[in-house]
Amino acid sequence: xxxxxxxxxxxxxxxxxxxxxxxxxxxxxxxxxxxxxxxxxxxxxxxxxxxxxxxxxxxxxxxxxxxxxxxxxxxxxxxxxxxxxxxxxxxxxxxxxxxxxxxxxxxxxxxxxxxxxxxxxxxxxxxxxxxxxxxxxxxxxxxxxxxxxxxxxxxxxxxxxxxxxxxxxxxxxxxxxxxxxxxxxxxxxxxxxxxxxxxxxxxxxxxxxxxxxxxxxxxxxxxxxxxxxxxxxxxxxxxxxxxxxxxxxxxxxxxxxxxxxxxxxxxxxxxxxxx
Length: 275
Prior knowledge:
This protein has 275 residues and is an alpha+beta fold. The protein has a single domain (2-270), classed as Clavaminate synthase-like (Double-stranded beta-helix). The chain is 20% helix and 29% strand. The chain contains 6 helices and 18 strands. It has helices at residues 24-37, 49-57, 127-132, 136-142, 156-159, 206-220, and strands at residues 2-5, 12-15, 39-42, 62-63, 78-82, 105-114, 122-126, 146-150, 174-178, 180-182, 189-191, 198-201, 226-229, 236-240, 244-248, 253-254, 257-258, 262-270. The chain is globular.
């Protein structure tokens, strides 16, 4: 097994391993690599839905999305589909998945089924590094504080995208989490806010909170914190959702990705309450 770094901040492409093997021994290797690199990429992994589910279960209980319907036969799998004529794709803003939940997602396993010839890469950003390099004055302002994460506007999860099917639920979910959380396995400090779901810092006036969060969001998007993955069919990305942000790029234009479908299968593993 070989790990090739794809950027300085995070990310490694793993070769010489099959994800069909979900044995405890294989999972331990994968989990250790994930903790080290935060996001892993595997190519030429023609795994079945059951094999994807079996691997995911090694990380913990599987999570069902509160708004989007899973596959009929495999409800744990969320099919993310961009129609051929769509210019946008699901997850196109920097975010960490479902941070509005009491126990946000721990790990995500995303497998490509059909991809456009160009466009639709996924970017990831290292939130441990973002915290370590954060301005000292901002660190003081957020020290010990929590922020509200909300799913307000949930209809956009499906209404904006032609091929995404909702499950009928439009309730709002809201939870407060530490702005700086501690990774439960590595003990490292993580900057745990995101521009999609984080609404306000508790105990600070809204205007000041907005200014602080705006600075943090810009900091989180620094290119030197990121890596970028160009998908191929039957590729798998596996990442630690607790310490990363990600976004799917929407660079689809006539003759350059537009006119082609993009189909991905996503499984999420439920995490713990941030602390």
